[in-house]
Amino acid sequence: MSASMVAPWGDRRFGIGTWSKLPVPELMEVVRFAGYDFVVIDLEHGLHDARSMALGVLAAQSVGLRAFVRVLGHSVAELQGALDAGADGVFVPHVDSRRTAEAVVAACRFAPRGSRRGSPTTRFGGWSTSTQEELVGAGDTLTVIAQVESPAAVAAIDDIVAVDGIDALFIGTYDLSLSSGVDSASPQFASHIETVERAASGVLALGSPAVDGVDAARLAEGGYRFAMVGSDVTFLGEGARRGLQGRPQRGRSDE
After folding, report:
1. Are 93 and 71 a contacting pair, CB within 8 Å?
2. Contact, 32 vs 81, CB < 8 A?
3. Strands 89-92 and 168-171, how do they pair?
4. What is the per-residue pLDDT across 53-86, written as a single tens digit (0 to 9) for each?
């Protein structure tokens, strides 16, 4: 883990972020003014494309919000856009093995640690204003977060944690429950979580979804470093439903 790394928790013991699902860059200001520490622009389960992702990173960072991108997969092609856009880090889904973790690191780290590609004519390259030395140095600030969300990942967690260049783990609880075929309240699911927690303890930072700030505080007390609370979609839905509370009954106009 690089000392210059831009982490979800920043210079604090714990950070709280949220998901950006909608391609509306102005919402980055809303998230920042609400007090969140970082945002994750979601290419995997959101409506973002390459263009809106890049605009989202720019908008978030312009208001002092750390900007991360959840990419679609592990390949160079799927990672490169977020790197060139100047994201502070990447959330990489379904890192299920040491081999996958090593491939992710290779795509995200410049030589000699990896084989990351680069171009000065990108936002990361300062639109041709950065020297090669500056570009490579800036690469050290990138945070690489591996998502653990399958029984295979849990089984391989010690190997994944040992890969140099992975900075943190994020437990994808929803997919972990789906892929395990067990309810998130079951003892087997709890065992999966405990296995990941033990492997990460004292080695890598750990993050998880949280229902709200109270739930996030519980995670912080348990040694986690960051949590994801809600998304722009859930906030919009909750607000819309709250706005209809107490409405009059919907009767027919001729009743």
Report:
1. yes
2. no
3. unpaired
4. 999 999 999 999 999 999 999 999 999 999 999 9
Q: Which domains can be identified in the chain, with CATH numbers?
A: 15-235 (3.20.20.60)
Residue (of 50, 5, 43, 1) closest to 21 by Cα position: 43
Q: What span, in angstroms and rounded, lies between the C-alpha atoms of 70 and 17? A: 13
Identify the CA nearest to 30 among candidates 211, 228, 231, 169. Answer: 231
pLDDT single digits (tens) 12-39: 789 999 999 999 999 999 999 999 999 9
Give phi and psi for 251, each to the nearest 5. -100, 160
- Residue 117 and residue 219: Cα distance in Å, rounded? 36
Q: Tell me how far apart the alpha carbons of residues 79 and 45 are, in angstroms, rounded to a whole number.
A: 15
Question: What does the block give as tokens for 216?
Answer: 């996030």
Q: Report residue 74 as tokens.
A: 């592990």
Structure tokens at 125: 């390259």
Query: Quick check: helix, strand or coil at residue 173?
Result: helix
- The neighbour count for residue 205, using CB atoms within 10 Å, is 22
The burial class, CB within 10 Å (0-12 / 13-18 / 19+), for 106 is middle
Assess whether pLDDT exceeds 70 at residue 253.
no
Token digits of residue 137: 């140095």
Report d(CA 157, CA 143) in Å as an integer. 19
For residue 185, what are its two tokens? 């309240």
One-letter identity of residue 74:
H
Q: Which residue has the tokens 């100047």?
A: 86
End-to-end CA distance of the chain: 68
Q: Considering only residues 231 and 118, tell me which one the structure prediction assigns the higher pLDDT.
A: 231
Report yes or no on whether pTM surpasses 0.85.
yes
Largest CA distance in the chain: 77
